[in-house]
Design a protein that fits this description.
alpha/beta; Rossmann fold; seven-stranded parallel β-sheet; 16 helices
Amino acid sequence: MSTESLKYFIVAGEPSGDLHGGKLIQAIQNINPNTSFMGHGGNAMKAAGMQILEHTDDLAMMGFVEVIKHLPRMMKIMGRTIDTISRMKPDRIILIDYPGFNLRLAKRIHSLKIPITYFILPQVWAWKEKRVETMKTVLDQSLSIFPFEEEWFDSHGLATTYVGHPFAELEHLDEASKEFYQRHNLSIEYPVLVLLPGSRQQEIDRHWPVFLNAVESIKKIIPDLQVMVGKASNVTINSIPDYFRIETNARKAMIAGTAALVSSGTATLECAVEDTPMIVCYKLSSISWIMAKYLTHIKYASMVNLIANKKIVPELLQDDMTSTNIVEAVLPLLDSKNIKRKKMLAGFDIVRKNLGLPGVYNRAATAILSQIKEHDD
């Protein structure tokens, strides 16, 4: 098969995966324009030219209980996905993160003998380590975004290529800080606390009431506190006070922030890249938390601390995520002269260094196309 005309089936089930998928599609097209893409993704992948079968808005979920609750619908989506792949016979399947669905899909379509690339690998080093055996059986190519993963996977028998982390090439946004402040009627004289409660409705429902209580307490201490909410377009947030400012572009909110309350996830890395001090907060359902504690084997929950391999940012998880704890942790970060804030900013330098060099999507696209050529030869 010539690399001049290729069909790809790509699966990204979450907003972050959609953003990475869109950039990866563009990188592949830059090398080989005569390609077509079909699969599951969101607006970024659609804008890059992929035909969307299932949208990320209907796929994203978090926690054991939530997954079980939506299991019948997800099984139907799995069935339709397998039928489509069988009919389409793509030249390559690219799976992006979303391991609960994607690893099951890879197992079920393995018999079709269609090469599978996994970009942004399942974090089996954190929990469910035995899944690496499945990966060794069903994957043809593994592309890692974390520097420590390549060695870990290689030592477990899965050949892996480290391409760098996508956030290494984040570009600063066009809108100047002055314009952003004017648009949201903010003052540069007073601190701005950014709230990033999550990109899934389950996260909003658990985090938002605690965030609200914390802000009310902080306002009593800092009456001139300004509050900016980074709100994902696919979620509903109730009970938003009138003085809160809403921004749908979370990164713009981060850049304007003096400090942030962030649900654990990729937003923590974005804050680190943008030098926004943060407190990481997260709550699961009680059953999901118990199972996560039992199954996980990592020291930290946030990607910032994992990449630095040390505690850079405080993590307030589950029962520790109280408004009292949040207030105590975030107040020093709202003071530009506080030593805790300065130490955290110094720690972000370590994180950025460990993310690698820009050009991640180009390296990933080149690796994919190189293996296609090798497969053809």
